[in-house]
Protein backbone atom coordinates (compact mmCIF):
# COMPACT_ATOMS: atom_id res chain seq x y z
CA UNK A 1 0.00 0.00 0.00
CA UNK A 2 1.06 3.54 -0.74
CA UNK A 3 0.80 4.46 2.90
CA UNK A 4 3.44 2.11 4.20
CA UNK A 5 6.22 4.57 4.45
CA UNK A 6 6.47 8.27 4.90
CA UNK A 7 9.87 9.84 4.98
CA UNK A 8 10.05 13.47 5.87
CA UNK A 9 11.52 13.94 2.43
CA UNK A 10 11.70 17.70 2.25
CA UNK A 11 13.14 18.44 5.64
CA UNK A 12 15.28 15.83 7.37
CA UNK A 13 14.56 15.55 11.08
CA UNK A 14 17.93 16.95 12.12
CA UNK A 15 17.24 20.10 10.17
CA UNK A 16 13.68 20.27 11.50
CA UNK A 17 15.10 20.19 15.03
CA UNK A 18 17.72 22.82 14.24
CA UNK A 19 15.14 25.17 12.78
CA UNK A 20 12.70 24.50 15.59
CA UNK A 21 15.29 25.39 18.20
CA UNK A 22 14.93 29.00 17.07
CA UNK A 23 11.27 28.95 18.13
CA UNK A 24 11.42 26.70 21.17
CA UNK A 25 11.33 29.70 23.51
CA UNK A 26 7.62 30.24 22.79
CA UNK A 27 5.65 27.61 24.70
CA UNK A 28 2.34 28.42 22.98
CA UNK A 29 2.27 27.83 19.24
CA UNK A 30 0.05 30.01 17.04
CA UNK A 31 -3.09 28.38 15.61
CA UNK A 32 -4.67 28.74 12.16
CA UNK A 33 -6.88 31.70 13.11
CA UNK A 34 -3.74 33.53 14.24
CA UNK A 35 -2.06 32.67 10.92
CA UNK A 36 -4.94 34.33 9.04
CA UNK A 37 -5.07 37.42 11.26
CA UNK A 38 -1.28 37.84 10.93
CA UNK A 39 -1.67 37.73 7.15
CA UNK A 40 -4.34 40.44 7.27
CA UNK A 41 -2.07 42.64 9.42
CA UNK A 42 0.94 42.17 7.11
CA UNK A 43 -1.07 43.21 4.06
CA UNK A 44 -3.46 45.66 5.71
CA UNK A 45 -6.46 43.79 4.32
CA UNK A 46 -10.00 44.97 4.97
CA UNK A 47 -12.16 42.87 7.25
CA UNK A 48 -15.26 44.34 5.65
CA UNK A 49 -16.14 43.84 1.97
CA UNK A 50 -17.46 47.43 1.77
CA UNK A 51 -13.97 48.76 2.54
CA UNK A 52 -12.00 46.52 0.17
CA UNK A 53 -11.59 49.16 -2.57
CA UNK A 54 -10.23 51.65 -0.02
CA UNK A 55 -7.84 49.01 1.40
CA UNK A 56 -6.47 48.26 -2.08
CA UNK A 57 -6.02 52.01 -2.75
CA UNK A 58 -3.94 52.28 0.43
CA UNK A 59 -1.75 49.40 -0.76
CA UNK A 60 -0.83 51.33 -3.92
CA UNK A 61 1.26 53.70 -1.80
CA UNK A 62 3.53 50.77 -0.81
CA UNK A 63 5.03 50.70 -4.34
CA UNK A 64 7.90 52.89 -3.15
CA UNK A 65 9.03 50.14 -0.75
CA UNK A 66 9.68 47.58 -3.53
CA UNK A 67 13.31 46.65 -4.23
CA UNK A 68 14.64 47.69 -7.67
CA UNK A 69 16.99 44.66 -7.73
CA UNK A 70 17.19 41.41 -5.79
CA UNK A 71 20.75 42.33 -4.75
CA UNK A 72 19.33 45.19 -2.65
CA UNK A 73 17.48 42.75 -0.38
CA UNK A 74 19.16 41.14 2.61
CA UNK A 75 19.80 37.37 2.27
CA UNK A 76 17.84 35.06 4.56
CA UNK A 77 18.44 31.63 6.11
CA UNK A 78 16.04 28.69 6.11
CA UNK A 79 15.52 29.02 9.84
CA UNK A 80 14.42 32.66 9.42
CA UNK A 81 11.16 31.54 7.79
CA UNK A 82 10.60 28.36 9.85
CA UNK A 83 7.14 28.30 11.47
CA UNK A 84 5.26 25.84 13.63
CA UNK A 85 1.49 26.13 13.88
CA UNK A 86 -0.95 24.06 15.90
CA UNK A 87 -4.41 22.90 14.91
CA UNK A 88 -5.82 22.04 18.36
CA UNK A 89 -8.45 19.46 17.37
CA UNK A 90 -7.74 17.45 20.51
CA UNK A 91 -7.39 20.22 23.06
CA UNK A 92 -10.13 22.52 21.63
CA UNK A 93 -13.08 20.33 20.61
CA UNK A 94 -15.16 23.40 19.64
CA UNK A 95 -13.18 23.81 16.38
CA UNK A 96 -13.61 20.13 15.49
CA UNK A 97 -16.97 20.50 13.75
CA UNK A 98 -15.50 22.58 10.91
CA UNK A 99 -12.94 19.84 10.17
CA UNK A 100 -15.18 16.80 10.54
CA UNK A 101 -16.48 14.58 7.73
CA UNK A 102 -19.22 11.97 7.85
CA UNK A 103 -16.66 9.15 8.30
CA UNK A 104 -15.52 10.77 11.57
CA UNK A 105 -12.14 11.75 10.18
CA UNK A 106 -10.70 15.12 9.13
CA UNK A 107 -11.84 16.80 5.91
CA UNK A 108 -8.79 16.91 3.68
CA UNK A 109 -10.19 19.94 1.83
CA UNK A 110 -9.86 21.95 5.07
CA UNK A 111 -6.23 20.83 5.40
CA UNK A 112 -5.57 22.15 1.86
CA UNK A 113 -6.93 25.55 2.93
CA UNK A 114 -4.68 25.59 6.01
CA UNK A 115 -1.58 24.59 4.03
CA UNK A 116 -2.27 27.38 1.55
CA UNK A 117 -2.56 30.06 4.28
CA UNK A 118 0.51 28.76 6.10
CA UNK A 119 2.58 28.69 2.88
CA UNK A 120 1.81 32.36 2.26
CA UNK A 121 2.67 33.35 5.86
CA UNK A 122 6.00 31.45 5.65
CA UNK A 123 6.88 33.48 2.54
CA UNK A 124 5.95 36.75 4.24
CA UNK A 125 8.15 35.70 7.17
CA UNK A 126 11.04 35.13 4.72
CA UNK A 127 10.59 38.55 3.08
CA UNK A 128 9.79 40.62 6.21
CA UNK A 129 11.76 43.85 6.63
CA UNK A 130 12.02 44.99 10.27
CA UNK A 131 11.25 48.63 9.54
CA UNK A 132 8.13 47.93 7.47
CA UNK A 133 4.95 47.12 9.42
CA UNK A 134 3.16 46.39 6.12
CA UNK A 135 4.60 44.32 3.29
CA UNK A 136 4.60 45.84 -0.20
CA UNK A 137 4.52 42.32 -1.66
CA UNK A 138 1.43 40.47 -2.81
CA UNK A 139 2.37 36.81 -2.28
CA UNK A 140 0.14 34.31 -4.05
CA UNK A 141 0.16 30.55 -4.65
CA UNK A 142 1.43 29.75 -8.13
CA UNK A 143 1.60 25.98 -7.88
CA UNK A 144 1.04 23.07 -5.57
CA UNK A 145 3.95 20.93 -6.70
CA UNK A 146 2.98 17.88 -4.66
CA UNK A 147 1.35 16.71 -1.46
CA UNK A 148 2.04 13.11 -0.51
CA UNK A 149 0.20 11.42 2.33
CA UNK A 150 1.43 8.57 4.45
CA UNK A 151 -1.63 8.15 6.65
CA UNK A 152 -4.96 6.93 5.34
CA UNK A 153 -6.95 8.61 8.09
CA UNK A 154 -6.47 11.94 9.87
CA UNK A 155 -8.10 11.72 13.31
CA UNK A 156 -10.54 14.47 14.33
CA UNK A 157 -9.73 14.37 18.06
CA UNK A 158 -5.92 14.63 18.13
CA UNK A 159 -3.89 17.84 17.84
CA UNK A 160 -2.20 18.51 14.51
CA UNK A 161 1.05 20.39 14.05
CA UNK A 162 2.17 22.05 10.81
CA UNK A 163 5.81 22.98 10.29
CA UNK A 164 7.41 24.60 7.28
CA UNK A 165 9.99 26.95 5.82
CA UNK A 166 11.17 28.43 2.54
CA UNK A 167 13.37 25.77 0.90
CA UNK A 168 14.37 27.43 -2.38
CA UNK A 169 14.23 30.93 -3.86
CA UNK A 170 14.37 32.23 -7.42
CA UNK A 171 14.24 35.95 -8.25
CA UNK A 172 10.51 36.44 -7.71
CA UNK A 173 9.39 32.96 -6.60
CA UNK A 174 9.81 30.83 -3.47
CA UNK A 175 9.41 27.11 -2.85
CA UNK A 176 7.91 26.22 0.53
CA UNK A 177 8.19 22.80 2.17
CA UNK A 178 5.55 21.98 4.78
CA UNK A 179 4.91 18.95 6.95
CA UNK A 180 1.87 17.92 8.89
CA UNK A 181 2.12 15.73 12.00
CA UNK A 182 -0.54 14.40 14.36
CA UNK A 183 -0.26 13.71 18.05
CA UNK A 184 -0.52 10.02 19.02
CA UNK A 185 0.52 8.65 22.43
CA UNK A 186 2.52 11.78 23.23
CA UNK A 187 4.43 11.82 19.91
CA UNK A 188 3.85 13.80 16.73
CA UNK A 189 3.73 11.31 13.81
CA UNK A 190 4.13 12.32 10.15
CA UNK A 191 0.92 12.56 8.10
CA UNK A 192 1.92 14.42 4.94
CA UNK A 193 4.64 16.38 3.14
CA UNK A 194 3.75 19.30 0.88
CA UNK A 195 5.70 21.41 -1.60
CA UNK A 196 4.15 24.71 -2.75
CA UNK A 197 5.56 27.39 -5.05
CA UNK A 198 4.60 30.99 -4.25
CA UNK A 199 5.22 34.09 -6.35
CA UNK A 200 5.72 37.67 -5.19
CA UNK A 201 3.96 40.48 -7.02
CA UNK A 202 3.75 44.25 -6.55
CA UNK A 203 1.20 45.78 -4.07
CA UNK A 204 -1.56 45.76 -6.74
CA UNK A 205 -0.75 42.15 -7.79
CA UNK A 206 0.06 43.26 -11.34
CA UNK A 207 3.78 42.65 -11.87
CA UNK A 208 6.44 40.30 -10.42
CA UNK A 209 8.46 41.64 -7.47
CA UNK A 210 11.89 40.62 -6.15
CA UNK A 211 12.25 38.52 -3.00
CA UNK A 212 15.12 38.08 -0.54
CA UNK A 213 17.72 35.53 -1.66
CA UNK A 214 18.11 32.35 0.41
CA UNK A 215 21.49 31.25 1.76
CA UNK A 216 21.85 27.58 2.78
CA UNK A 217 24.03 27.23 5.89
CA UNK A 218 24.74 23.48 6.17
CA UNK A 219 25.36 20.60 3.73
CA UNK A 220 21.84 19.41 4.56
CA UNK A 221 20.36 22.75 3.60
CA UNK A 222 22.52 22.81 0.43
CA UNK A 223 20.90 19.49 -0.50
CA UNK A 224 17.37 20.84 0.08
CA UNK A 225 18.12 23.97 -1.94
CA UNK A 226 19.55 21.83 -4.76
CA UNK A 227 16.35 19.74 -4.69
CA UNK A 228 14.32 22.94 -5.14
CA UNK A 229 16.38 23.74 -8.24
CA UNK A 230 15.79 20.20 -9.55
CA UNK A 231 12.05 20.47 -8.87
CA UNK A 232 11.97 23.61 -11.00
CA UNK A 233 13.76 21.88 -13.89
CA UNK A 234 11.50 18.82 -13.54
CA UNK A 235 8.44 21.06 -13.86
CA UNK A 236 9.86 22.65 -17.01
CA UNK A 237 10.57 19.21 -18.53
CA UNK A 238 7.10 17.93 -17.64
CA UNK A 239 5.50 21.00 -19.19
CA UNK A 240 7.68 20.80 -22.34
CA UNK A 241 6.67 17.16 -22.85
CA UNK A 242 2.98 18.05 -22.35
CA UNK A 243 0.62 16.21 -24.69
CA UNK A 244 -0.81 19.60 -25.65
CA UNK A 245 2.60 20.44 -27.16
CA UNK A 246 4.14 17.12 -28.21
CA UNK A 247 2.87 13.87 -29.70
CA UNK A 248 2.75 10.85 -27.35
CA UNK A 249 5.83 8.62 -27.18
CA UNK A 250 5.99 5.44 -29.29
CA UNK A 251 5.11 3.36 -26.21
CA UNK A 252 2.12 5.60 -25.44
CA UNK A 253 0.91 5.41 -29.04
CA UNK A 254 0.92 1.62 -28.75
CA UNK A 255 -1.14 1.81 -25.54
CA UNK A 256 -3.77 3.97 -27.26
CA UNK A 257 -3.82 1.67 -30.30
CA UNK A 258 -4.25 -1.41 -28.09
CA UNK A 259 -7.19 0.22 -26.29
CA UNK A 260 -8.71 1.08 -29.68
CA UNK A 261 -8.33 -2.51 -30.96
CA UNK A 262 -9.76 -3.89 -27.69
CA UNK A 263 -12.90 -1.81 -28.06
CA UNK A 264 -13.64 -2.54 -31.74
CA UNK A 265 -16.92 -4.34 -32.21
CA UNK A 266 -16.09 -7.50 -34.21
CA UNK A 267 -19.65 -8.84 -34.22
CA UNK A 268 -20.23 -7.38 -37.67
CA UNK A 269 -21.92 -9.14 -40.58
CA UNK A 270 -19.46 -11.17 -42.67
CA UNK A 271 -15.68 -11.32 -42.57
CA UNK A 272 -13.45 -8.27 -42.81
CA UNK A 273 -16.24 -5.72 -42.38
CA UNK A 274 -15.24 -4.39 -38.96
CA UNK A 275 -16.20 -0.72 -38.78
CA UNK A 276 -13.82 1.81 -37.25
CA UNK A 277 -16.84 3.53 -35.76
CA UNK A 278 -18.51 0.57 -34.09
CA UNK A 279 -17.13 0.21 -30.56
CA UNK A 280 -17.93 -2.03 -27.61
CA UNK A 281 -16.97 -1.76 -23.95
CA UNK A 282 -14.64 -4.53 -22.70
CA UNK A 283 -15.77 -6.40 -19.53
CA UNK A 284 -15.30 -4.70 -16.15
CA UNK A 285 -14.74 -1.31 -17.80
CA UNK A 286 -16.38 2.12 -17.90
CA UNK A 287 -16.32 4.56 -20.81
CA UNK A 288 -14.44 7.71 -19.86
CA UNK A 289 -17.39 9.88 -20.88
CA UNK A 290 -19.48 8.13 -18.19
CA UNK A 291 -16.91 8.77 -15.42
CA UNK A 292 -17.35 12.47 -14.76
CA UNK A 293 -19.12 14.84 -12.37
CA UNK A 294 -19.70 18.57 -12.60
CA UNK A 295 -20.14 21.27 -9.96
CA UNK A 296 -20.89 24.99 -9.82
CA UNK A 297 -19.81 27.50 -7.20
CA UNK A 298 -20.85 31.13 -6.82
CA UNK A 299 -17.83 33.00 -5.44
CA UNK A 300 -19.05 35.11 -2.52
CA UNK A 301 -17.03 37.81 -0.69
CA UNK A 302 -16.70 35.44 2.31
CA UNK A 303 -14.28 33.30 0.25
CA UNK A 304 -11.94 36.17 -0.63
CA UNK A 305 -8.25 36.26 0.25
CA UNK A 306 -6.31 39.22 1.64
CA UNK A 307 -6.09 40.67 -1.91
CA UNK A 308 -9.86 40.45 -2.46
CA UNK A 309 -9.61 37.67 -5.00
CA UNK A 310 -10.99 34.19 -4.29
CA UNK A 311 -8.76 32.34 -1.80
CA UNK A 312 -6.68 29.60 -3.50
CA UNK A 313 -7.29 27.24 -0.56
CA UNK A 314 -11.05 27.54 -1.11
CA UNK A 315 -10.62 26.60 -4.80
CA UNK A 316 -8.48 23.62 -3.78
CA UNK A 317 -11.05 22.49 -1.21
CA UNK A 318 -13.92 22.67 -3.71
CA UNK A 319 -11.89 20.89 -6.41
CA UNK A 320 -10.78 18.20 -3.95
CA UNK A 321 -14.34 17.57 -2.77
CA UNK A 322 -15.58 17.20 -6.36
CA UNK A 323 -12.57 14.96 -7.14
CA UNK A 324 -13.35 12.82 -4.09
CA UNK A 325 -17.03 12.55 -5.10
CA UNK A 326 -15.97 11.57 -8.66
CA UNK A 327 -13.70 8.81 -7.31
CA UNK A 328 -16.37 7.72 -4.81
CA UNK A 329 -19.14 7.35 -7.41
CA UNK A 330 -16.73 5.64 -9.82
CA UNK A 331 -15.25 3.09 -7.40
CA UNK A 332 -18.45 2.51 -5.44
CA UNK A 333 -16.65 2.72 -2.09
CA UNK A 334 -14.91 5.30 0.08
CA UNK A 335 -11.73 6.58 -1.62
CA UNK A 336 -8.66 7.78 0.30
CA UNK A 337 -6.41 10.55 -0.99
CA UNK A 338 -2.84 9.41 -1.69
CA UNK A 339 -1.41 12.40 -3.50
CA UNK A 340 -2.19 15.86 -4.81
CA UNK A 341 0.01 16.75 -7.72
CA UNK A 342 0.85 19.64 -10.00
CA UNK A 343 -1.94 22.16 -9.32
CA UNK A 344 -1.24 25.17 -11.51
CA UNK A 345 -2.97 28.47 -10.65
CA UNK A 346 -3.30 29.96 -14.12
CA UNK A 347 -5.36 33.05 -13.32
CA UNK A 348 -7.00 34.61 -10.28
CA UNK A 349 -10.73 34.15 -9.65
CA UNK A 350 -12.66 37.36 -8.99
CA UNK A 351 -15.30 37.69 -6.28
CA UNK A 352 -18.73 37.27 -7.90
CA UNK A 353 -17.50 34.80 -10.54
CA UNK A 354 -19.39 31.67 -11.48
CA UNK A 355 -16.90 28.86 -10.98
CA UNK A 356 -17.53 25.71 -13.03
CA UNK A 357 -15.75 22.53 -11.91
CA UNK A 358 -15.52 19.29 -13.92
CA UNK A 359 -14.18 16.08 -12.36
CA UNK A 360 -13.03 13.31 -14.69
CA UNK A 361 -11.63 9.86 -13.92
CA UNK A 362 -8.81 9.73 -16.45
CA UNK A 363 -6.77 6.68 -15.43
CA UNK A 364 -7.22 3.63 -13.21
CA UNK A 365 -4.93 0.84 -12.07
CA UNK A 366 -5.93 -1.92 -9.63
CA UNK A 367 -7.55 0.05 -6.76
CA UNK A 368 -6.10 3.44 -7.72
CA UNK A 369 -8.17 6.17 -9.36
CA UNK A 370 -6.51 9.18 -11.01
CA UNK A 371 -8.92 12.15 -11.14
CA UNK A 372 -8.45 15.40 -13.03
CA UNK A 373 -10.55 18.41 -12.01
CA UNK A 374 -10.77 21.28 -14.45
CA UNK A 375 -11.94 24.62 -13.10
CA UNK A 376 -13.04 27.58 -15.18
CA UNK A 377 -14.79 30.89 -14.59
CA UNK A 378 -17.78 31.98 -16.58
CA UNK A 379 -18.23 35.68 -17.20
CA UNK A 380 -21.96 36.37 -17.56
CA UNK A 381 -21.31 39.72 -19.29
CA UNK A 382 -18.98 38.44 -22.03
CA UNK A 383 -20.29 34.83 -21.96
CA UNK A 384 -16.68 33.65 -22.03
CA UNK A 385 -15.18 30.68 -20.20
CA UNK A 386 -11.58 30.90 -18.94
CA UNK A 387 -9.59 28.09 -17.34
CA UNK A 388 -8.28 29.00 -13.89
CA UNK A 389 -6.85 25.70 -12.62
CA UNK A 390 -6.23 22.06 -13.43
CA UNK A 391 -6.06 19.75 -10.38
CA UNK A 392 -4.63 16.22 -10.27
CA UNK A 393 -5.64 13.85 -7.45
CA UNK A 394 -4.62 10.24 -6.86
CA UNK A 395 -7.14 8.23 -4.81
CA UNK A 396 -7.01 4.72 -3.47
CA UNK A 397 -10.27 2.79 -3.29
CA UNK A 398 -11.00 0.03 -0.78
CA UNK A 399 -11.67 -2.42 -3.65
CA UNK A 400 -10.26 -2.95 -7.13
CA UNK A 401 -12.01 -0.58 -9.55
CA UNK A 402 -13.22 -1.05 -13.15
CA UNK A 403 -10.88 0.07 -15.89
CA UNK A 404 -11.63 3.48 -17.41
CA UNK A 405 -11.60 3.37 -21.23
CA UNK A 406 -11.18 6.36 -23.59
CA UNK A 407 -13.19 6.41 -26.83
CA UNK A 408 -11.97 9.53 -28.66
CA UNK A 409 -8.47 10.83 -29.39
CA UNK A 410 -8.99 13.70 -26.90
CA UNK A 411 -9.96 11.24 -24.17
CA UNK A 412 -6.93 9.09 -25.04
CA UNK A 413 -4.70 12.12 -24.41
CA UNK A 414 -6.40 12.67 -21.02
CA UNK A 415 -5.84 8.97 -20.29
CA UNK A 416 -2.12 9.21 -21.12
CA UNK A 417 -1.76 12.44 -19.12
CA UNK A 418 -3.43 10.70 -16.14
CA UNK A 419 -1.11 7.72 -16.57
CA UNK A 420 1.93 10.04 -16.51
CA UNK A 421 0.76 11.77 -13.33
CA UNK A 422 0.01 8.44 -11.69
CA UNK A 423 3.48 7.08 -12.62
CA UNK A 424 5.15 10.20 -11.17
CA UNK A 425 3.22 9.80 -7.90
CA UNK A 426 4.06 6.10 -7.60
CA UNK A 427 7.75 6.87 -8.17
CA UNK A 428 7.66 9.39 -5.29
CA UNK A 429 5.93 6.96 -2.95
TrEMBL record:
SUPFAM superfamilies: Thioesterase/thiol ester dehydrase-isomerase. Keywords: Hydrolase, Mitochondrion, Repeat, Serine esterase, Transit peptide. Residues 81-204, 289-401 form the HotDog ACOT-type domain. One of its GO terms (cellular component) is mitochondrion. It is found in: Mitochondrion. Pfam families: 4HBT (PF03061). Its main location: mitochondrion. Coiled coil: none annotated. It comes from the Eukaryota. One of its GO terms (molecular function) is carboxylic ester hydrolase activity. Belongs to the acyl coenzyme A hydrolase family. This is ACOT9 thioesterase. It comes from Fregata magnificens. The lineage of its organism: Eukaryota, Metazoa, Chordata, Craniata, Vertebrata. The gene is Acot9.
